Amino acid sequence: MVNAGDMNGSGNLMDFLDEPFPDVGTYEDFHTIDWLREKSRDTDRHRKITSKSKESIWEFIKSLLDAWSGWVVMLLIGLLAGTLAGVIDLAVDWMTDLKEGVCLSAFWYSHEQCCWASNETTFDDRDKCPQWQKWSELLVSQSEGASAYILNYFLYILWALCFAFLAVSLVRVFAPYACGSGIPEIKTILSGFIIRGYLGKWTLLIKTVTLVLVVSSGLSLGKEGPLVHVACCCGNFFSSLFSKYSKNEGKRREVLSAAAAAGVSVAFGAPIGGVLFSLEEVSYYFPLKTLWRSFFAALVAAFTLRSINPFGNSRLVLFYVEYHTPWYMAELFPFILLGVFGGLWGTLFIRCNIAWCRRRKTTRLGKYPVLEVIVITAITAIIAYPNPYTRRSTSELISELFNDCGALESSQLCDYINDPNMTRPVDDIPDRPAGPGVYTAMWQLALALVFKIVITIFTFGMKIPSGLFIPSMAVGAMAGRMVGIGVEQLAYHHHDWIIFRNWCRPGADCVTPGLYAMVGAAACLGGVTRMTVSLVVIMFELTGGLEYIVPLMAAAVTSKWVADAFGKEGIYEAHIHLNGYPFLDVKDEFTHRTLATDVMRPRRGEAPLSVLTQDSMTVEDVETLIKETDYNGFPVVVSKDSERLIGFAQRRELILAIKNARQRQDGVVSNSIIYFTEDPPELPPNSPHPLKLRRILNLSPFTVTDHTPMETVVDIFRKLGLRQCLVTRSGRLLGIITKKDVLRHMAQMANQDPESIMFN
Questions:
Q1: Total-model pTM
Q2: Cys bridge to 339: 183, 513, 555, 574, which one at CB 3.0-4.6 A?
Q3: Are residues 601 and 568 in the same domain?
Q4: Which tens digits make up the pLDDT trace of 296-355?
Q5: Domain check: are 559 and 680 in the same one?
Q6: Residue finishing a domain among 308, 325, 355
Q7: Is 584 among the domain residues?
Q8: 436: burial class by Cβ within 10 Å (0-12, 13-18, 19+)?
Q9: Residue pair 556/535 in contact by the 8 Å Cβ criterion
Q10: Is 375 left (phi over 0), alpha (psi -120 to 50) or beta?
Q11: Residue 555 belongs to a domain with what CATH number?
């Protein structure tokens, strides 16, 4: 909106809006912002600063500070997001190990840190040291036997329940918005929706604390999605310190887009992947300037996390791998099969999870969030403890599944039968027959896979912070590792088959099962979220496997194709629709042949459109209209008879303008005439002072004709971020189309319930 007062300013005393008053230009909760108006306001502000900068040195310095404020905000976001991510990683590491035992030399040490500091640790028993004691050793001085196992089992469940109960209680009492992944809401907020408090300071604090608790409890969830929410809370906090961002909702969303990139950067140690994730998955408006700033924020965040070094391996991530074998063309077939599995798992998960979440919203189950969390935690802990692959944290599990079997590995997955005559270098171990440990690990992994698939459906969406990236990757990594071991044994025992003959000679290191785990993880994550480009970049940054981009791309594309065949929605879009947020997805296509006249209101048989006239309504008339309706704004016409359109006035600004006029301007009473023209109307003598409100009038509201195809209208709403659009014929006002009307019409055309769009 161009400020009409700036263009048509007059010295009339009655235009008290020559000076801006508090709260003008702000929006109510659960309403959509006007992107065009925010952009115009920022242009006006920038023009004013540029013209003032030529007046004095001080104004020039102020203009430089204004220009640099964006980079300062990015620096602060990167520093805080990186620090919080490092603290969360360290705390999760310690509290996860606390369920199994405690370090006697320093109780704040995790198991690994405790044994690092020990001088009595041998390489073969590097997980055992006298300073680290399991609870059974500490309480009853027994480390083996049934009683020790039962005591450790009981305390594992007890700690898990304590962590989960504390987390859900903190969320419920202090910050209800701290639950869930946060990405569906971040996507909605970045599209221009206002959810006050969602990115507030309390949400930031409680989400950070409860994220540590829920991940440590052993529930099937990750911290990566919630870290994006945490980073966006940091972005919102720092943008509120600079008026350039705090007073302009459009500019604020540019900061939040960059903050989302920083969140993924620290979640996965993938700065470039973070920028691409923000661009591909969460951002609605992403100008080139935001791309550079996102890159800078992601860089600072990754650098900060690297300085903290939470994993103690001088890497940004826990999963760093180094494979010594190239992949071969024949392996593309199992990679594509893993892609198909990822797509099918993604479809199954989305449908089951949405059905369960809908049941939670519509039945009594939703009234007992604490009980639900306690029950799911108890079931998870009881089933997880006996299986070593579900007992440990999901991140450690993925790390083990990704690892190649070197000569120094002590994992069950690496229990192969060695040739005693082998004299190969350590890094180049040939394929070998599987030993009993590998077969035990295979059936344990199969049970863990089924358990993860089922329990994640019920865990995601509970009233606690819950990310989906790590559980999805774990499902894919387990399936991939099993396929990898299968292909490896097939190649070893049947190396004379035509598919293996050219590239897998006896005694060669042909197949890397860890690579299959990596490809499976990418496929399952792609099937659930429908990411492609950012997913592949995140995966190779996450693992350091730059050589394996083609297998990752093949799996990611296949999983997207297979999942899209059953439904276009990823998990985040599905949760947006479930919650009824007004989100116009750029990926959705509208192909129906309807016109603007079919969607606009009022429809045939409905009351006529509520309008304001340019110079014939009193203050009382306008206040009555505002009281009797709940519309967000009103078209202004020349008169009720002509209905020729003049402009559009926002409801909130009308209320504020009249309230301020009554307080600050003498002579304004209930029967004062309100006029939106440049010159006051001719009034009889002794009439009360009229009130000029031209400056709050948008003189260039977006209009379409009644015969405009809805395909074009939908495109306009998407690309310009409109709140509403007026329908005219030959300059005469016929009706109005709001964003909610567009979403309802699209739902109707897709045979969905149009009343599911709940917010304005």
A1: 0.89
A2: 555
A3: no
A4: 999 999 999 989 888 776 676 667 777 777 888 888 999 999 999 999 999 999 999 999
A5: no
A6: 308
A7: no
A8: exposed
A9: yes
A10: alpha
A11: 1.10.3080.10
Q: pLDDT tens digits for 81-109?
A: 999 999 999 999 999 989 888 888 888 88
Amino acid at 73: V
**490 and 564: one domain?**
yes
Same domain, yes or no: 516 and 395: yes
How many whole angstroms separate alpha carbon 161 and alpha carbon 169? 12
Q: Angle 332-362/571-579 helices, nearest 10 degrees?
A: 10
Rounded Cα distance, 187 and 577, in Å? 12
Separation of alpha carbons 619 and 608, rounded Å: 21
The three state secondary structure string of 390-416 is HHCCHHHHHHHHHCCCCCCCCCHHHCE
CA distances from 156 to 149, 242, 334, 536 (A): 10, 47, 38, 36
Q: Are strands 612-613 and 633-637 parallel, antiparallel or unpaired?
A: parallel
Quick one: which of 74, 285, 281, 81 has its CA closest to 183?
281
Q: Provide the domain limits for residue 167.
A: 89-116+125-308
Using the Cα atoms of residue 99, residue 165, residue 576 and residue 256 in order, give the sign of their dihedral.
Answer: negative
pLDDT tens-digit series, residues 236-250: 999 999 989 999 999
Q: How far apart are CA 537 and CA 248, in angstroms?
A: 33
Q: Of 273, 308, 343, which closes a domain?
A: 308
In a domain, 205, yes or no: yes
pLDDT tens digits, one per residue of 249-280? 999 999 999 999 999 999 988 999 999 999 99
**Element spanning 613, H or E:** strand 612-613
The predicted model gives 739-760 an average pLDDT of 82
Block residue for tokens 């999605």: 225
Using alpha carbons, select from 321, 336, 351 the residue that is nearest to residue 523: 336
Q: Is residue 70 part of a domain?
A: no
Residue 113: band (very low, low, confident or very high) from pLDDT cuts 50, 70, 90: confident
Same domain, 290 and 361: no
Residue with structure tokens 């296509």? 589
Which CATH number belongs to the domain containing residue 649 in this structure?
A: 3.10.580.20
CA–CA gap between residue 625 and residue 263 (Å, rounded)? 46
Instruction: For residues 403 and 512, give the distance between their C-alpha atoms in angstroms, rounded to a whole number.
Output: 9
Q: Give the rounded distance of the alpha carbon of 438 from its chain centre.
A: 38
Residue 693 lies in a domain: yes
For helices 332-362 and 469-493, what crossing angle results, to 10°?
Answer: 150
Residues 264 and 345 both lie in one domain: no
Sort 704 into a burial class: Cβ within 10 Å, 0-12 / 13-18 / 19+: buried
Taking CA atoms, 717 is separated from 191, 469, 739, in Å, by 11, 31, 7
φ, ψ for residue 484 (rounded to 5)? -60, -45
The domain total for the chain is 3
Whose CA is closest to 271, among 540, 91, 517? 540
Report the distance separating Cα 294 and Cα 494, nearest Å: 51
278 and 352 part of one domain: no
**3-class secondary-structure state, position 347:** helix
